[in-house]
Write a structure and sequence with these properties.
heterodimer, A: alpha/beta, five-stranded parallel beta sheet, about 25% strand, B: mainly alpha, about 0% strand, elongated
């Protein structure tokens, strides 16, 4: 218990909190549900407003986490339950089976190259493919292979394959096991449960993109050349599926006219009430990068309000308008229709500064889809503010708001404190925000949780 | 209604916004009172204007109308014809990110304008207070019943003798006089509507202004086609309600002809053969009105589309119910006449008159039914001011 802290979530907020805590000679357990830390920031190409390469500033931090003696990294793991109180929390963490001997794997990629099962790549937002055994991205920490049991032909064989194997009496796939130089593949691995005893906890579970299908008039998933901003980000990225070429899904050509639509699922009473805080700046930056990637491309941003509030943000916004010639059109696109022959998109909107009804053709549409907090409910029992019903009978129950962001009990003077003494929150789990604000809150949460940890008496 | 919507419409978190988007003139509050509850939700994105099939074919801009309300610009709002071009199909609400229900706001603005067009002040009292409306209808109902009770002609119980019960010599002049007064009221209100439109739409340099005749042509003899076919309804998502609406208007027009203009031939004890045009016309109007009103009532009760689901205003309910009962009792009088049931016929005839009087006296010049003049004239006036309005020739508006 003494001097031990748990950080839930290995995105930029969780990484920052873990590093700050470890700096103070506290023992940190960093739990991440995916195979690698890095979170959403690892998928970004550039940051605003300085246009720093996102992985160039994130990767050193990820590596610092893996090298730090005070941090115990539990990736591909989930918090299953928390009990106890500040200074003495008991946490159950389930380590999902990777089917790869963690210590033996050298990350040589041999298995990945030979694996025959192909799966849409989450890291590239489904725009590319990965294998059933995979390392999520080149800079992954830890750089260890993981078998996605759901898609592995050995662990979950397709029905036909299973029958065929039974009839002919042959064994199923297992190519990775045969090619692995250190012989690290282990199909018999089972889930492992660890009990941790910590004095304080930082929740940094982050965000998920809202489903753009909730706004049906934009035809996402139906119209080929309608993208989410994170998909477009992967197109811009040199580590992305097109190596940084912006190409249309329908014909593999460069688009000449790109429309960016703001507030998709945000500030929309049919989806989410709140503003997602970063999408304005993200689209402004993406329109600028698109102009740099494709000279002569026409970029139009459809907005109701441009919220460029941070340091240097407004200057950045004006620069795209004046220097790069990005067009800003005040008005919400009412519907999008796809032209059957060219797969171009007809946008219908009112330009509210002119009061005119417009139909305009674009080659590509990028939706600035809003975000929602990641589900933390299976990890930590929650109760929604105002409701008496507890979602679990476990002793520690975290209060969240109606929109599922963790409730801050003192948002002005202690903007990291949750309803549970000793549990702190950072990043998007506490409310929509961008990278720099997440990092700031993470350091604050690390500070507050270290105070609790250092106060805790040795048993 | 989801929790999010409740929060948005009941103030709550966006409470402080209200004081920014309204100017303290009370205009927004009045529109909310008249049914436009979403006025404070609107963030002026223009989705409603862009999805609306009517605005595609005309210069109507619904967002601007909402802006006038938010800014408290009551003179601009009074001179705005846009609300009269909306037929409440509800397409805007389906796409509205703020769920402000623009079509319900348009309906509320129409109520507001109807109240202000009327110079007597009766209209705004009726529209703003359910109590006053009920009281006025009740008063006229019982007054009419009382007058018939006291002053009816001799009651013949051996056979139905409506001619003696209600002598044509009295009924016809009273009816025509009432018609003249009501028509004069409605036309004077329509003229005030024109004044409002004119004063808030100053001539812009270079804007094409039409003379009255060319404007009339421009609108495909608008008064006629808007009045008879209500065709813009057939071109927007309100198509589902269009048939019932046309039937109700036609039924009303035919019964107006039969029982006001041709009363001396229709208020009779003579039983015409069924092939007589008067009888056929009578059946048509009874069917059209009863069918149209019952469908409309059942839609409102079931809440089958955005239009009928939205909070219905009391003037709307009152009108449709009065029309239904007027048609029903009128039809029953004829029925009892056929069946030779004198007392039943006299009583239902009295009831019929007691429904007709509030329907005509209150609804036509002062409340919902006044839109029979305001809708066509709004289009005509808009055309006079050089605005583009939906035209019959543009039927089948192309939708991308």
């Amino acid at each position: 218990v003494f001097n031990q802290v748990l950080v839930v979530g290995g995105g930029i907020a969780g990484i920052q909190a873990a590093l700050d805590l470890a700096e103070q000679d506290l023992k940190v357990f960093l739990v991440e549900k995916t195979p690698s830390i890095g979170g959403k920031m690892s998928q970004l190409d550039k940051t605003f407003p300085t246009l720093d390469c996102a992985s160039c500033i994130l990767t050193p931090k990820m590596v610092a986490v893996s090298r730090n003696k005070n941090i115990e990294l539990l990736t591909y793991s989930e918090v299953r339950g928390i009990s106890g109180k500040a200074g003495d929390f008991h946490v159950t963490v389930a380590k999902k089976p990777r089917y790869v001997n963690f210590d033996a794997c050298t990350g040589c990629n041999e298995c990945v190259m030979k694996c025959p099962a192909k799966v849409p790549d989450e890291f590239n937002m489904g725009l590319g493919e990965r294998k059933a055994i995979y390392i999520p991205f080149p800079q992954a920490v830890p750089r260890k292979a993981t078998i996605d049991a759901e898609h592995c032909w050995r662990l979950t064989p397709p029905e036909k394959m299973r029958k065929n194997a039974l009839e002919r009496g042959i064994t199923l796939c297992g190519v990775c096991a045969r090619v692995c130089p250190p012989n690290a593949i282990d199909f018999s691995q089972k889930e492992e449960v660890v009990d941790l005893n910590v004095s304080s906890i930082v929740i940094a579970t982050g965000l998920e993109l809202e489903d753009p299908r909730r706004v049906p008039e934009y035809g996402y998933g139906k119209h080929t050349n309608v993208y989410t901003h994170l998909e477009f980000e992967r197109l811009l990225s040199s580590t992305g599926p097109t190596s940084g070429e912006v190409l249309r899904r329908s014909d593999g050509r460069h688009p000449k006219r790109i429309a960016f639509i703001q507030c998709v699922c945000s500030r929309d009473l049919r989806a989410n009430f709140y503003c997602s805080a970063f999408c304005c700046m993200a689209s402004i930056r993406q329109s600028m990068l698109a102009k740099e990637h494709l000279p002569g491309v026409d970029c139009s941003v459809f907005y109701m309000d441009i919220r460029a509030f941070g340091k240097g943000y407004y200057q950045f916004f004006k620069r795209t308008e004046e220097e790069y010639g990005v067009k800003y059109i005040r008005g919400r696109v009412a519907r999008i229709e796809e032209k059957p022959d060219t797969k171009n998109l007809m946008l219908v909107y009112e330009d509210t500064r002119l009061g005119s009804f417009v139909k305009a053709e674009f080659d590509m549409v990028v939706l600035a889809v809003g975000i929602k907090p990641s589900e933390i409910s299976p990890a930590i029992p929650i109760t929604v503010s105002g409701s008496k019903r507890l979602e679990s009978s476990l002793p520690v129950t975290l209060e969240v708001e109606e929109d599922r962001f963790v409730k801050l009990v003192n948002p002005y003077l202690n903007p990291v404190a949750t309803s549970v003494n000793g549990i702190f929150v950072a990043g998007v789990a506490a409310g929509a925000k961008d990278v720099s604000d997440s990092v700031m809150q993470a350091s604050a949460a690390a500070m507050k949780s270290s105070i609790v940890a250092k106060d805790a008496k040795a048993p | 209604m989801s929790a999010k919507q409740t929060r948005a419409t009941s103030g709550g978190r966006i409470g402080p916004l209200a004081s920014i988007t309204t100017t303290g003139t009370g205009l927004a509050e009045e529109i909310i009172e008249l049914g436009g509850k979403g006025i404070r939700n609107c963030y002026q994105c223009g989705t409603c204007t862009a999805v609306c099939p009517i605005s595609e074919a005309s210069s109507a801009n619904f967002r601007k109308t909402i802006k006038y309300v938010q800014l408290g610009l009551d003179r601009k709002l009074l001179g705005d014809v846009t609300p009269w071009l909306c037929y409440y199909c509800g397409d805007c609400q389906a796409s509205c990110p703020r769920q402000a229900n623009p079509s319900e706001i348009m309906a509320a603005v129409r109520r507001y304008q109807t109240g202000r067009y009327d110079w007597t002040g009766i209209s705004s009292r009726l529209i703003r207070s359910k109590k006053v409306e009920l009281l006025a209808i009740g008063l006229l109902f019982f007054l009419t019943a009382g007058v018939v009770w006291l002053f009816h002609g001799p009651v013949v119980t051996s056979a139905v003798r409506l001619e003696t019960f209600a002598p044509i010599g009295i009924v016809e002049p009273v009816g025509l006089a009432a018609f003249a007064i009501l028509a004069a009221l409605l036309m004077s209100n329509t003229f005030r509507m024109y004044r409002f439109i004119k004063s808030s739409n100053p001539d812009q340099a270079g804007a094409p202004r039409r003379g009255p005749i060319s404007a009339l042509r421009e609108t495909t003899s608008i008064l006629g086609s808007y009045f008879l076919t209500q065709f813009p309804m057939s071109e927007c998502g309100a198509r589902r309600r269009w048939v019932d609406h046309v039937l109700m208007v036609a039924g009303y027009a035919v019964s107006f002809l039969l029982f006001v203009v041709l009363l001396r031939y229709t208020l009779t004890d003579q039983i015409y053969p069924w092939t007589n045009p008067l009888v056929l016309a009578g059946y048509f109007s009874a069917f059209a009105l009863l069918y149209g009103t019952s469908i409309s009532i059942s839609r409102r009760v079931r809440g089958s589309d955005t239009y009928s689901r939205s909070a219905r205003h009391s003037t709307d309910w009152m009108f449709i119910l009065l029309l239904f009962f007027t048609a029903l009792t009128g039809f029953m009088v004829v029925l009892f006449q056929y069946l030779s049931m004198p007392m039943y016929a006299y009583v239902t005839f009295t009831l019929h008159l007691s429904f007709v009087v509030p329907l005509l006296v209150l609804e036509v010049p002062f409340a919902k039914w006044s839109h029979l003049a305001y809708r066509p004239f709004a289009a005509y006036f808009a055309s006079l001011r050089g605005m583009k309005i939906p035209r019959l020739r543009e039927r089948g508006v192309s939708r991308v």
